[in-house]
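yo

u said u wanted the structure for the complex thing, so here. seqs first:
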Amino acid sequence: MRKARIKPAVKESPLFWPVKLAENGRCLRVLDESLIPRKLRYIEVRSLPEAVRVIKQMKTRAFGQFLVVLNTFLLVLANAKTRSPQALLSKIRTAAGRLNHSRPTFPFAEVTAIVVAWAQAAAAQKADVAASVSKNIDGYLQGIRGRRLQRVQKIAEVLRDGDSVLTHCNVSGELAMAAAICRQQGKDLHFFATETRPYMQGAKLTCWELQRMGAQVTLIADNAVGSLMADGLVNKVVVGSDRSCANGDFANKIGTYQIAVLAEEFGIPFYVLTQPSHKIKTGDDIPIEIRKAKELLVFSGKKIVSGPVGGFYPGFDVVPHRLITEAIAIDVR
Amino acid sequence: MRKARIKPAVKESPLFWPVKLAENGRCLRVLDESLIPRKLRYIEVRSLPEAVRVIKQMKTRAFGQFLVVLNTFLLVLANAKTRSPQALLSKIRTAAGRLNHSRPTFPFAEVTAIVVAWAQAAAAQKADVAASVSKNIDGYLQGIRGRRLQRVQKIAEVLRDGDSVLTHCNVSGELAMAAAICRQQGKDLHFFATETRPYMQGAKLTCWELQRMGAQVTLIADNAVGSLMADGLVNKVVVGSDRSCANGDFANKIGTYQIAVLAEEFGIPFYVLTQPSHKIKTGDDIPIEIRKAKELLVFSGKKIVSGPVGGFYPGFDVVPHRLITEAIAIDVR
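structre next:
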């Protein structure tokens, strides 16, 4: 471990670090975000196919998927019946390939390439591949943890007494923990969360974690953003990013782009939490995942349309950097 | 009857004229739009309180509510046990008061004032109030019917071969019937309908009636409008209006405003179907109905949030006239 574990200044939201390693690295406990707010339950993942499945089924999202990807290598190493450096390198490569293809739009290939490089270096030195890669992953994750906690502090600094903050989708614990810090500091804040159709992450996750942290939160439909802004009911926007580019463009959950356009129309400061990648030059280089129409056309088990009606559900959209007031950035590498 | 009944050029969508008078004026058959697309069922309304209830419960919306208001006077007159001009005038006034207060944002007071004026004129002349008011209402409605059918033709003229048209909420049959006319004319069109949370009028009503009329329609989430426009997937927007002003501003279902802002950002022509009122000067004079949070927080019978989470649901928003490319107008008076 390269860094000491950093404790948060406030209690941790379950969404801040939704994947835990258990049973000496033989099991991942992945928070089933699809059950929140009804239940707080963890899915046990014990193999590479199971890991790919929780990613594909969106049981965990964004940062949680990133944690699944990294921790899956620990699972693969713990389950390996060989200590042969070449055999382990081969297993790491196979896992990287499977994980890379589990979902587009996500920067899995960037992070899996790093793990493969660690394995290659250890194998080339005839070192203990499992021990070396495990130590590197653990150090890497602790570094991210520390930087994310720093970002929570930065968000808390951006938020001022009396602010009314609009957010979209879910930023995996950070905004809720920043809200708790602000509360300790005596700042009075109000949050508006968009529903974020079709998965309702705003309603299910963001409202849940904000109220759990003691924040005041009000849900709005995705179509009420313009009205809210026109009526002067929000004075800041804070959103996350699934992928960010060298030029400052970023991709995030569908709907983020139109919120950015509306914020500009009303002169409302627009903040984004980023983890910049210099491998992607601009937003044009980000592939957008088009998800199945069924995810839009069926709600709560019921079809909401009848007859031959199509559905178009791009999972993400791209916000050009010109619409961003300030990127609150961390470097994940 | 002042005008001959005009037949539409294509089959009529049930949403075009969702209220029918039955049983010699003793019953209104009101299309239960809350059951569409699952069932095509009419609610029988036999009294003023029942009429107020279908309005408050949003069993019918917009134009349907307008039809309920007018036809309720026929119901009141048919059920009256007196022929006394003053007693009937009193009943008309009572009904007008109850209907006016059934919902804000709607121009019920304007239309009920016209009916009261007819009743007053008949009572002053000691004429048959019931016969006179009934004849006037029937003529008035036939006039509206003719002008709405003309508007359907105007919409069909605006739509060109190859157009991809975005719409929001539901425009009560007119767009679907215009789509059918375009189809007869050999125009190839595509429609995108927003879901229109929380009532899902886009998914439930617009998709249903467009596909029923043979149009190609694709559902999107309310948050995908910006992305769709940025990707060049729509080249026209057509929306309805619940209330329009002398200066061209109009109020429509929440979400219309942000679509108008986005259309302007992308230079996409924005059309609105209006029935201008010269009694309202500007959009600032339109009261916006804030509906109950529960309507947002409970979906399909299930609460979508947990804990102390508020909900903010303005039913409508106001689009300033500068964002309108062309108002396709009729005069309802």
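The CA atoms of residues 119 and 303 of chain B lie 47 Å apart. Chain B has two domains: 19-147, 159-329.
cya
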